[in-house]
Amino acid sequence: MADTIFLTRNPHDRSEVWIGLAEVYPAPGCSILDSDKGACINIVASAENFQAFESRVKQLCEAYHLELWSLDDAEPFRVRRKTWTVDPEIEQLVTDVSNTDQIRFSTLHTFPVSEGKKPH
What we know:
This protein is of the alpha+beta class. It has one domain (3-113). Helices cover 28% and strands 36% of the residues. Strands 1, 2, 3, 4, 5 and 6 form a six-stranded antiparallel β-sheet that branches.
């Protein structure tokens, strides 16, 4: 299940599509992730550099009441495509972002988290 959120940015920047793997946990008010679960999700967004990508990922997490614990393997999608075989779901997210400048994320791959092991 992919989802979308619309966030604004400067339409005159020189962005490219970036991808990264986020580890997230529910924050108060979260309705997409149970309180005893964490999740890993691929996030795709247009950005000029890593800092801009990370900022957009944080905006997405705030909008969905998710706590961003880590953002790994973040890189321009053109680099990812040269190195790895990319799942068709991710290819579709990249196409959507390229055409609309939305931030998109893939299926939440959840895992159980005991209270003592949460990264809070």
